[in-house]
Design brief:
D-Maltodextrin-Binding Protein, domain 2; 5-stranded mixed beta sheet; 11 strands; 6-stranded mixed beta sheet
């Protein structure tokens, strides 16, 4: 059965979400030496997120605040990103030690020769979704026939959108595709220039609701036959080889941070507000973003599995979907993209 989500109107004025790229809070030199100690026991480490900060990034700041990374021997600096694929490329080039990116972008990057591996997708099903204002009446895939949909060419969302349509018996030729820059996607929907956009449910749908002052409908890809893995942790092959103990410590601390933040969402939002400052959206929006991510940390068939743990079958499914829709020419085995060594050592 499909799961249609309806967002409430958020009455507070929207803060500027995309102004964070230049935000001083949480940024540092990404080229810091991996082995440089800030004390006798801590290693200085950088983590690049997938995009500018929002509520679903708060668990890592909660983990820093609670000392989970320090306990793991890590002095962690967090940086905003410019998109999942750019984060993958930055980690592969050594500009950041670890990254937070969606599985399709990791797979695409590896296919293009970027020397990285995913350590675990924390979102057991990605938050890719078709997002529309409720007054458009788009409540099922069939409702997209004759409608215009804004997509960003080349990203994982756009590459899998035809699969979403075909899986639901919608002829792609009946849907008008409008190419939109990633930074403008929300604006064109709010202005009514398109009937819907393809975006991320936990992050962008709440922003659309806030900026438009209207209810918003979303259709998750994963609820309509496209169950791909979502955001998770990655690092370079070089770091896996040179310092596997550090990689294990980072994985363990990230798992604990997301697990505990899911149990204490309000405290997690307080942590990111304290760390990043006034450039963030208001607290109601941040909390909505985090609460929409939490259910994605577990799958329906593995509800009690540890956060951040995956199965080989999940990666095979994601790879198969990407091949079928031209995102990659052919798929290798899951271990070419995902190193499950650290999951196993963590007992996950």
């Amino acid at each position: 059965m499909s799961l249609k989500k309806v967002l409430p109107i958020v009455s507070l004025a929207a803060a500027t979400l995309l102004a964070l790229t230049a935000c001083g809070g949480g940024q540092a030199d990404a080229g810091a030496d991996k082995g440089q100690s800030t004390t006798d026991s801590l290693k200085k480490v950088t983590l690049m997120m997938n995009f500018t900060y929002s509520g679903h990034h708060s668990p890592v700041f909660y983990g820093i605040q609670q000392g989970y990374f320090k306990d793991a021997g890590i002095d962690l600096t967090v940086e905003p990103g410019g998109g999942s694929l750019k984060t993958v490329q930055a980690v592969g080039a050594g500009h950041a030690d670890f990254g937070w990116s969606d599985a399709p972008s990791i797979i695409t990057g590896v296919g293009a020769g970027v020397a990285v591996h995913g350590l675990g997708a924390f979102e057991q099903s990605g938050s890719s979704a078709v997002i529309s204002l409720a007054d458009e009446g788009i409540t099922s895939p069939k409702d997209l026939e004759g409608k215009s949909v804004g997509i960003t060419p080349g990203d994982a969302l756009s590459q899998t959108f035809p699969a979403f349509l075909r899986a639901n018996d919608v002829d792609p030729s009946t849907v008008k595709i409008v190419n939109v820059d990633a930074a403008s996607k929300i604006a064109v929907l709010v202005k009514g220039s398109v009937d819907a956009i393809v975006g991320f449910d936990e992050n962008q749908a709440p922003v659309v609701a806030q900026k438009s002052g209207k209810k918003v409908d979303t259709m998750l890809y994963s609820d309509y036959g496209i169950p791909m893995l979502g955001l998770g942790l990655l690092t370079s092959n070089k770091l896996i080889s040179s310092d596997p103990d550090l990689v294990q410590s980072m994985y363990n601390a990230m798992v604990k941070s997301w697990t505990e933040a899911a149990a204490h969402p309000d405290a997690a939002i307080d942590a990111i507000e304290a760390a990043v400052g006034q450039q963030l959206p208001d607290k109601a929006l941040l909390l909505e973003q985090l609460k929409r991510q939490i259910p994605l940390l577990h799958s329906k068939d593995r509800p009690d599995a540890p956060v951040g743990s995956n199965t080989e079958e999940q990666w095979k499914t994601t790879l198969k979907l990407l091949v079928e829709n031209g995102a990659i020419e052919k798929a290798g085995s899951p271990d070419e993209y995902w190193d499950n060594t650290f999951q196993k050592k963590a007992g996950a």
